[in-house]
Amino acid sequence: MAAAPPAAEAALLLLLALLALAAVALRRGDALSLDLYDVTCPEVEAAVTAAVRQAMANDRTVAAGLLRMHFHDCFVRQGCDGSVLLDSTATVTAEKDGPPNASLHAFYVIDNAKRAVEALCPGVVSCADILALAARDAVALSGGPWWVVPVGRRDGRVSLANETTAALPGPTASFDQLKQAFHGRGLSTKDLVALSGAHTLGFAHCSSFQNRILRAQQGVAAADDPSLSPSFAAALRRACPANNTVRAAGSALDATSAAFDNTYYRMLQAGRGLLSSDEALLTHPKTRAFVALYAASQEAFFRAFTKSMLRMAGLNGGQEVRANCRRVNPS
Ligand code: HEM
């Protein structure tokens, strides 16, 4: 076979190099590993678990905060890239200061975990991995399932508040809007129902469910949302009166809000789902069937939740291992 002429050979080499680079870039985005830190940072899991356990011992709301933070990280930008952890700067308003993130909390737990991990193995473990591990620990330490978290995420360098509202569905989202948001991230309607089960933990402020109560006071003819149980609506109206001025007022998302269990689905079936987006899961036959399944079997819920968390946590595509979760590395 005749040798390729120099110009063609150079072009071929360039093409091969570009293909190799593209493959590396794709791997960065996709390939997570089960044993990445076995040698480089074997104590990472123990360090993160200790930080979460200690914070939860002092404050039972931490678990919900960490789980929601991971979701909000994974749904904006390049997926689970720690972009939600970055602080705003003089020139950039970061995701954490975007409207849907106003009530995110427990960032200090990630700072504590990162500090502990950096002391063990500096520059090895990304903030995005620490958040994914901490969310898993938050679930398990609240009585939910435990699963192995594949690792190797990279931290992103961009975080923009104005990308949050479009990416994160709001509490009044309809079934179609929820479906669209999840499909947009490559997640299914089954994932939507299973991951909404995260509302077994935590709390919502009055503003998140005001649309379901007090309509009469707002001049709308109909009173409370008819899909809401009347006694539940009355309790919510007491917690959030029309003239409420207490910013911290609100309601637990389910009746056992510090325990990770399937009460959320049973409450939904009883007309006691708190947010319109929770209630929306009952408006479609397919999602209604999943709600019934998870309400009947906590085991089925735990299995589905684990699978969906793994799918959500697999979205990634950052560039670096940040030294400080609140700031990008100096370029
Ligand atoms: C399906 C679409 C979803 C919508 C529309 C939604 C919306 C909300 C809203 C409005 C709140 C209350 C915020 C407040 O008033 O302070 C909340 C709380 C919460 N969400 Fe979701 N969420 C959704 C899915 C998820 C998912 C997928 C997860 C996690 C996997 C999650 C985890 C949580 C947790 C744990 C809380 C309680 C937070 C706390 O107590 O600090 N949510 N969500």
How would you describe this protein?
With 331 residues, the chain is mostly helical. It has two domains: 37-167, Peroxidase, domain 1; 175-311, Peroxidase, domain 2 (Orthogonal Bundle). It contains 15 helices and two strands. The chain has helices spanning 6-30, 37-40, 44-58, 62-74, 107-120, 127-141, 164-167, 175-184, 189-196, 206-209, 230-239, 263-269, 276-279, 285-296, 298-313, and strands at 203-205, 250-252. Strands 1-2 form a two-stranded antiparallel sheet. α3 runs antiparallel to α5 and α3 (44-58) crosses α6. The structure holds protoporphyrin IX containing FE. Residues 61, 64-65, 67-68, 71, 103, 105, 169-171, 173, 178, 192, 195-196, 198-199, 201-205, 208, 253, 275, 277 line the site of protoporphyrin IX containing FE. Residues 1-22 form the signal peptide. One of its GO terms (molecular function) is peroxidase activity. This is Peroxidase. It is an enzyme of class 1 (oxidoreductase). The record marks 68 as: Transition state stabilizer.
